[in-house]
Amino acid sequence: MLVELPGRRGIGKLDSVIKDQCVVSVFHSLLHSELVEFSVNEIARAYLSPQTRVYVEKDGRFRVGRVTHYLIHDNGLVAYEVRFPNGHQADLNKTKLFVRPWNAPKDPSEVPAGGRRGKPISL
Predict the structure, then answer these.
(1) Per-residue DSSP letters for the chain?
(2) What CATH number is associated with residue 51?
């Protein structure tokens, strides 16, 4: 599930929940992700707005796209329509999408340079 980070710092992915603590994966860039622990009451479910930049991993490589629409299914699962720069479009499950937090550095130069995802760093 996508969750809003405390202090409106952006969006992460819920990794696990144990009692009243949860672990959230925060995707900073292709080369840097981290696992952060929060109290369950500090986070809330999040949805991506149209034009949100997302990163999609396929075959060990990342593609950058933008959300154009989303659909909430009866069972609560969310599918996002993502458009890529080459004009291609795909309907993707939220688990396939990565979103950088709002405070991520403005220079995403490691996107074309990196291409592959690094190992998460646990905090």
Answers:
(1) -EEEPGGG--EEEEEEEETTEEEEEEEEETTEEEEEEEEGGG-EE--PPTT-EEEEEETTEEEEEEEEEEEE-TTS-EEEEEE-TTS-EEEEEGGGEE---TTS-S--THHHHH-SPPPPEE-
(2) 2.30.30.140
Number of domains in the chain: 1
Determine if the pTM surpasses 0.85.
no
- Whether 31 has a pLDDT exceeding 90, the answer reads no
Residue whose structure tokens are 């609560």:
76
In a domain, residue 112? The reply is: no
As given in the structure block, the two tokens for residue 26 are: 């925060």
Confidence of residue 30 (pLDDT cuts 50, 70, 90): confident
Mean pLDDT of the chain: 83
Sheet with 2-4: strands ordered across: 44-45, 2-4, 11-18, 21-29, 32-39, 121-122
Position 86 in a domain: yes
